């Protein structure tokens, strides 16, 4: 299953960028998109594949936070379902 979670671009070095997935930092390849520091991207298999506007990204991140706060989700995470 592939999940589309927005990541904020923190730094850019050539075709590589350090991004923040809500507290989890990762290096991704940005050669497929034109992006600037501070913008949000959707990442798949280590590549940024789409740039999202900040409002849409924040709305999506807030929905993910709400989902992860529910006890049922915590049980699923602990049981690796």
Description:
The protein has a single domain, classed as SH3 type barrels (Roll), CATH 2.30.30. It contains 2 helices and 5 strands. It is of the alpha+beta class. The protein has a 5-stranded antiparallel sheet with strand order 3-2-1-4-5, covered by helices on one side.
What is the gist of this entry?
Helices cover 31% and strands 38% of the residues. The chain has helices at residues 54-69, 71-79, and strands spanning 6-13, 16-21, 24-29, 40-44, 47-52.
Question: Which descriptors would you attach to this protein?
Answer:
single chain; 81 residues; alpha+beta; SH3 type barrels; 5 strands; 31% helix; elongated
Using the coordinates above, name the CATH class: Mainly Beta
Helix content: 25-40%
Summarize the main sheet.
Answer: 5 strands, antiparallel
CATH fold-level assignment: SH3 type barrels
Termini separation? 12 Å
Mean pLDDT: 86
What is the radius of gyration?
14 Å
How would the global form be characterised?
A: elongated
Beta-strand percent range: 35-45%
Strand ordering within the main sheet: 3-2-1-4-5
> What is the count of DSSP helices, taking H or I runs of 4+ residues?
2
The low-confidence parts are none
Order of H and E elements: EEEEEHH
Structural class: alpha+beta
């Amino acid at each position: 299953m592939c999940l589309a979670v927005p990541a904020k671009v923190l730094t850019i070095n050539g075709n590589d960028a350090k991004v923040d997935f809500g507290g989890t930092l990762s290096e991704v390849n940005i050669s497929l998109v034109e992006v600037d520091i501070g913008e949000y991207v959707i990442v798949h298999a280590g590549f940024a594949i789409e740039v999202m506007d900040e409002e849409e990204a924040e709305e999506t991140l807030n929905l993910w936070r709400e989902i992860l706060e529910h006890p049922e989700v915590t049980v699923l995470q602990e049981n690796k379902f």
